[in-house]
Amino acid sequence: MEVSGISMTHRDRVLAALRHQTPDRLPLDLGSSLASTINVTAYQRLREHLGLETERPPTIWALRSSTVIPDEDVLQHFDIDLRPLILGGPDAGGDRRLSEHAFLDEWGVTWMKPADGHYLATAGPFQRLEEPTLKDLENHRWPDPADPGRFRGLRERARELRETSDCAVVLNLGVGPLHLCQFMRGWAEWLEDLLVNPAFGEGLFERAVDFFVQVAERALAETAEFVDLAWFGDDVGAQGGLLVRPELYRRVIKPRHRRIVDAIKRHGKLAAYHSCGSVYAILPDLLDIGVDVLNPVQVAAAHMDTARLKREFGRDLAFWGAIDTQRVLSRGTPPEVREEVKRRIADLAGEGGYILCAVHNIQAEVPPENVAAMYQAARECGG
Questions:
Q1: Biggest distance spanned by C-alpha atoms of the chain
Q2: DSSP secondary-structure letter at 361?
Q3: Which fold has domain 10-91+124-381?
Q4: Which stretches in the chain have pLDDT values below 70?
Q5: Is the model's pTM score more than 0.85?
Q6: What is the predicted pLDDT for the residue at 94?
Q7: How many CB atoms lie within 10 A of CB 162?
Q8: Helix residue spans in the chain (DSSP H)
Q9: Tally: H helices and E strands in the chain
Q10: In this structure, are residues 70 and 43 in contact, taking their beta carbons and an 8 Å threshold?
């Protein structure tokens, strides 16, 4: 949509799409959220492909996923419409290096990686307990949600983004409480706890949610006037379906996620929720708790057909992502990438409601030609 021949600002374009209005062109993202950025190896190859300077080391966003905060020259090259606002690290108990390929985080979780891989949570404070109890939770030393390091300079950075850019600003609230439980207790063990040791499993989850909500409230209180939406990620889907039965999700997880979304909505912001995998079964629940936009729309997972998602939920739920990374971006050709982009735009972009980017972070094996082809096709096919 253009008014008197004047194009929208980047921010207005994003907000129009998220409000299910037709923007002047399709909004594009790279690096505005923790799960829509790019691996450091792929990023350096992309800069070289674009003929941009590569000697200066990139700014690392997340050590454990080896992802970067893209530089402004790359974002402007692709005319990206969103920018990230990121909380700081705590003054007390932040990441502590154990070796070249291992570190301990503030939650007491040990992360290790092979030389050419990603970090994995290999030990946590509750992982080796056979039957943990509420006493174990009471005795644990929990991080302080009010640690000033998390918020130092946050308002100033938010104001600078608003005053120096016309892009939409995304407050990144980070990895959510469900993941924190799995990191601290173990991926399978915590899910088992919800069934066989619910006092501990739900008690751990409640403490993680309390922390997350307190951080979100403080961050939004300081930045709400400068940001447009708040993003948090908490995976409940796998390749073939939900990680838990829908009944268990609705009893245990949904009410806690509602608390997070309520905190976002109290400050008048749009709520962006990230879950990998097949989450079709709970899309009505996400709408019920107030989620405005779903990321990353893992199209290779079961029941995540984009035409169906748009048809059944597109009037109320916006979609963010959807360009397949499992096969097309990683192993396809630029023409195949172009066809993928055309398909997702045709499925999702009608009457707004779509921000285009890759499904999750662009990984190291993705050729730079495919990244460039994705954004070029998006501009050519997205208006």
A1: 68
A2: S
A3: TIM Barrel (3.20.20)
A4: 1-6
A5: yes
A6: 87
A7: 19
A8: 10-18, 40-50, 72-77, 134-139, 154-164, 177-185, 187-196, 198-223, 246-248, 254-266, 283-289, 306-313, 330-331, 334-348, 368-381
A9: 15, 14
A10: yes
